[in-house]
Amino acid sequence: MDGVTFSIGPSIREFIKRMFPNAHPASNIFVGYDNYSDFKTEIGRLEPYIYPALLGVDDKNDLNKLGQIEFIDTFTGKELHKITPGD
Hints:
Strand content: 15-25%
Number of strands: 4
Shape: globular
Strand order of the largest sheet: 1-2
Number of helices: 3
Radius of gyration: 13 Å
């Protein structure tokens, strides 16, 4: 199955746990797709659901404390884009 894996590193998980003791961050989330070109146009609609689930933080006020979130290609290190939870 084709798809995209969203993940956070151990240091980010520890940071989230210290900042939000009740948070339960995931190591990764896999989102499968049948057609990449369709997925590429829809990913923006999924991000508001992916990062709270990945970080284990679902309270909007808590998410706003995080500031900007960067999506980075782990193979190339290239920044794909940034979002700010409060926007």
